[in-house]
Amino acid sequence: MTQQWPARLWIVRHGESIGNVARDAAMAAGHGIIDIAERDIDVALSPLGHEQADALGRWFGGQPPSGQPDVILTSPYRRARQTADRIGERGGFGTARVVVDERLREKEFGILDRLTTAGILQKYPEQAEFRQRLGKFYHRPPAGESWADVVLRLRSMLDSIALHHRDRRVLIVCHQVVVLCLRYILEDMDEEGILAVDRAADVANCSITEYSFPTRADEAARPRLERYNFVAPLREEGAPVTAAPDANVAAR
Question: What is the pLDDT of residue 28?
Answer without folding.
Answer: 78
